[in-house]
Design goal:
The chain is an alpha/beta fold. It has 2 domains: 3-46 and 273-365, Alpha-Beta Complex (Aspartate Aminotransferase, domain 1), CATH 3.90.1150; 50-271, Type I PLP-dependent aspartate aminotransferase-like (Major domain) (Aspartate Aminotransferase, domain 2). 42% of the residues lie in helices and 16% in strands. The chain is built from 15 helices and 13 strands. Helix 4 packs antiparallel against helix 12 (259-270) and helix 5 packs parallel to helix 12. The longest helix has 24 residues, at 272-295. 41% of the residues are buried. Bound molecules: pyridoxal-5'-phosphate (PLP). Residues 41, 93-95, 119, 121, 163, 167, 194, 196, 223, 225, 231, 236 line the site of pyridoxal-5'-phosphate.
């Protein structure tokens, strides 16, 4: 078998996903007891205590296929957002929704536009479909270049994808920039507003959710993986005009998300106290990290999500720093795959995990 002959060119170009090390692997490899996993923007508080019971209940019917439209959860999401149920679609994480978007809307020869430093999932899913992707450089302060993005739209552009707030930078489009973007995008081009970190961002004064300035061509993505703490279940959703949702339902894998994921998300969605606690821990943790970086003369970007990006002088420095922190039990994420090889992303953890980060950092830099 000649694997090269078997594959289309676009798949040959893709690289397999390299997962970060698990807590168990790091413990074993370095003989450590305490591990702080600050690598994947998960919720370090866990998830709502209500989730467990709901999931155990759902398992009583695990022999049956799940509700393909996740009706109960769809209704809850529609009600909270003041939209019709037919404007909501659920799938196995917002990454799955990105895949659905790529499967549903692109005709041969059409292109997509995004930034050069953003969520790698969009790079991958467009690559899987062989879609031409124009990556517009972020500005010197790691923000989206709205004019650059609008100028890149041509007669073959089908989609503009922006994560707002952005991952890995934590930066965001100010409300006037967002309005300018929406107004500047032609109506037959889709704007994908990925709001995976919405719950952390919503109280920021000049952050404007796409839900609050919505046109027919805007598709909003949200997830249960971050503030709700359900990354392991794989469940996320999109809100958009029902004409678009109807088409997306055609290409969704019929029975995603799973029944336990639907039950978990429904329970988590109701627990607003847990959500509040999660966002408060992140807010305090971000401020603490900014002060720490300032005290140690480390460059960083202010963030409105649950992670902060530190900016080192070179890729080598980023590699060494991440490795040395790993050896101390602090798992961080280099973001070369996201387009920023000299940067490292730190997920905001619990106060004790942030202590661990700071102590290990001081150990490495002998400060
Ligand atoms: C901007 C953004 N979108 C989507 C995702 C993926 O979320 P999900 O777990 O719902 O697939 C992530 C995860 O890191 C993200 O940062």
């Amino acid at each position: 078998m000649n694997i090269d002959e078997l594959l289309p060119d676009n798949i040959k170009k893709l690289k397999p996903y390299v997962a970060g090390k698990t807590i168990a692997e790091v413990k074993k490899e370095y003989g450590l007891e305490k591990i702080s996993k600050l690598a994947s923007n998960e919720n370090r508080l866990g998830c709502s205590s209500k989730v467990k019971e709901a999931v155990l209940e759902s398992i009583k019917e695990i022999q049956d296929y799940p509700d393909p439209i996740a009706g109960k959860l769809r209704r809850a999401i529609a009600d909270r957002n003041g939209v019709k149920e037919s404007e909501v679609i659920l799938a196995a994480g917002s990454e799955s929704i990105i895949s659905i978007l790529c499967r549903t809307f692109f005709k041969h020869d059409e292109n997509a536009i995004t930034a050069d430093a953003t969520f790698v999932g969009f790079f991958v899913q467009t690559g899987v479909r062989g879609i031409e992707l124009k990556k517009i450089p972020v500005t010197d302060d790691y923000r989206f270049d709205v004019d650059g993005i609008l100028n890149a739209i041509d007669g073959k552009t089908k989609m503009v994808y922006l994560a707002n707030p952005n991952n890995p930078t934590g930066t965001y489009l100010k409300s006037d920039e967002y309005r300018k973007l929406v107004d500047g995008i032609p109506e037959n081009v889709l704007l994908i507003a990925d709001e995976a970190y919405f719950e952390y961002a919503k109280e920021v004064d000049d952050f404007l959710s796409a839900m609050d300035y919505r046109k027919q061509n805007v598709i909003i993505l949200r997830t249960f993986s971050k503030a709700f703490g359900l990354a392991g279940f794989r469940i996320g959703y999109a809100i958009a005009d029902e004409k678009l949702i109807t088409q997306m339902l055609k290409t969704k894998l019929t029975f995603e998300p799973t029944a336990p994921a639907q039950a978990a998300a429904l329970a988590a969605y109701d627990d607003l106290d847990f959500l509040k606690k999660s966002t408060e821990v992140v807010k305090k943790g971000r401020e603490r990290l900014y002060s720490f970086f300032e005290d140690h003369n480390i460059k960083y970007e202010k963030s409105i999500s649950n992670s902060v990006m530190m900016i080192l002088d070179s890729e080598e420095e980023a590699i060494d720093f991440t490795q040395e922190m790993l050896e101390q039990g602090v798992i961080l994420r280099r973001i070369n795959a996201f387009g920023l090889p000299q940067c490292v992303r730190i997920t905001i953890g619990t106060p004790s995990e942030m202590d661990h980060f700071e102590e290990s950092f001081k150990q490495i830099f002998k400060q």
